[in-house]
Amino acid sequence: MEGSAWLPLWLTVSVWDEGFWLPQNISRAQLEDSQNPIYPRLKDLYFILPWTWAIYVLRLLFERFIATPFAKLLGVDCRPIEKAQQNIVLEKVFRDITREPGKNHLTHLAKQLDWDTKKVIQWFKLRRYQDKPSLLTKFCESMWKFSFYLWAFSFSFYYLSKSPWLWNSRECWYNYPFHELSFEVYIHFMMEFAFYGSLIFSQFFDVKRKDFVVMCVHHHVTILLLVIAYVSNMTRIGTIILLIHDAADIFLELAKMANYAKWQKICNIIFLMFAVVFIATRLIIYPITCIRSVFFESWEIIGPFKIWGFINLLLVTLLIMHIYWSYLIIRMVLKAFHKGKVSKDERSDVESSSDEEELSEQNAHEKTS
């Protein structure tokens, strides 16, 4: 047990209990000490943090030098959000009392400041929107995620298409856990570790959405599943799960980019494609292929071991979140057919820019009147 003190407490609880992570009669040393072939090793987890910071720095560079010029090329509104003029009285009301004062309160504030009521209303509107991210910020975030998901899906499909376990999930369990860690699988896992690790860090100052809590749970469950898959060398089924989950997100981020560029018809088409791919991959392929394989095929081929139940619990947790999101997506698609456009994503991942447009139009009208 030397070295366990260097690992996080939550990891040491079970890492050194080989009966928890691995099937019976399989020792950790059999994986750790092997030189040819090479299997996943616990020390590889030490590199997660450097990978995470590296990909976060890459994101900052990407958004500044690639996404921003591309947004301007597409005609995305890159103007900074107009800020409300400084006013101590109104700022105190905004912060301590209410962000949207009622009619009587507005009248009282107008008299107190000797302002027109419309000017007070406009101040509160500007104050509410100045804390929101600009369309440029949203576009850059979406383009970064789109680029990563596109790379991850293309890269994983490229090497998995040549592997037997993509086409026959039972291959994930034959001779388990002695599955060689290829360079492609290592790079894929480290990049996914880094990407979701950076999202856990950046989600607190990225674009805030209504499903923030659900997404936070999703990122943590994903990281936990990645750790379990790597430590237990369930990388084969893990790569399939990653491939399935990356597919729909490509269309989601692309639809958001089209929305921010005000390409409404293209946004509608891509979002409909996203809805179809999301439901097909997350509600059909994922449970039929992945959950069935982990629950039934692994039991049949290698038998259950302690972590088996926990893994299935996490996989079902993901499925429940997929069902929740699918319900919201279907609601939005139905609304889109009724209104003729994607106006506001119930999942809050394809935000409408109508509020910003309305505020800009009102400002322009007031300046010209």
Task: Please describe the structure with a list of short key phrases separated by commas or semicolons.
mainly alpha, about 375 residues, disordered N terminus, disordered C terminus
Please describe what this structure looks like.
Helix 8 packs antiparallel against helix 12 (235-260). 70% of the residues lie in helices and 0% in strands. The model is unreliable at 1-13 and 344-369 (pLDDT under 50). It is elongated. The N and C termini lie far apart (77 Å). The protein is mostly helical and 369 residues long. The protein has helices spanning 9-15, 18-21, 28-32, 48-74, 88-96, 103-113, 117-130, 135-160, 164-167, 183-202, 212-231, 235-260, 264-301, 306-339, 354-368. The chain contains 15 helices and no strands.
Produce the secondary structure layout:
Layout: H1 9-15, H2 18-21, H3 28-32, H4 48-74, H5 88-96, H6 103-113, H7 117-130, H8 135-160, H9 164-167, H10 183-202, H11 212-231, H12 235-260, H13 264-301, H14 306-339, H15 354-368
How much of the sequence lies in strands comes to under 5%
Helix content: over 70%
Overall body shape: elongated
Using only C-alpha atoms, the radius of gyration works out to: 25 Å
Query: Could you say which structural class the secondary elements and strand pairing correspond to?
Result: mainly alpha
Q: Identify low-pLDDT runs.
A: 1-13, 344-369
Write down how many β-strands occur, each being a DSSP E stretch of 2 or more residues: 0
Taking all residues together, what is the mean pLDDT? 86
User: What sequence of helices (H) and strands (E) makes up the elements?
Assistant: HHHHHHHHHHHHHHH
Describe the sheet with the most strands: none
Number of helices: 15
Distance N to C terminus: 77 Å
